[in-house]
Amino acid sequence: MDRKAQYLEQELIDNDSIFINIGKKTFKCKRLTNWASGKITKLILKGELMLSDDKQQTLVSFNKNRQLAPKCLSLAILGSWWKIKLFHPIFWRWLNYNFTQDQYTKAINKVLDFSDVKFFFLNMASLQGLVEVEQKMTNQTTKSIIQSQKSDQPTT
User: How far is CA 20 from the centre of its chain?
Assistant: First the structure.
C-alpha cells in the first residue's frame, strides 16, 4: 500500500476532524454518519433539481433550491443525531442569512474532498443519472405501447 492510502486508512480509523472556514467563522466537521447522509439524500431528492422548458417552472425550482446548500452544509457540520435534532432548524437559517452561495461552494468543496463524503456524493450523482435514464426508457416504452394500440384498433 502506498503512503497516501495508508494515511487515508488511518484517517478513517481515527475519525479525524477537518476545519471548514465560512467567512470569518471556523467550524469543525467529522465524517457523515449514515443518518446524516440519509437526511442529506432526502433534502436533495425533495429539492426540485430538474430543469424544464417552462421558464416559470425553472425559476420556481431555482428559488426552492437556494436553501439547499445551507441545509446540507448544516447537516455536514453538525453531524450527530442529537446536534441535528436540536440545532439544525436554527443553524441552517443562520448560515443562510449570514453567508453567500460563493462561501457555501468553498465549504462544500472542502467537505466533498473529505474522503468518504466525496464518494457518497459521487454515488448519489450516479444514481440520479440512472433514475433519469430509467424515466426516459419508461416514457419511450409508454409511447410505443400507445402507438401500437392506436394502430391495432379496427376502423369502423
Answer: 18
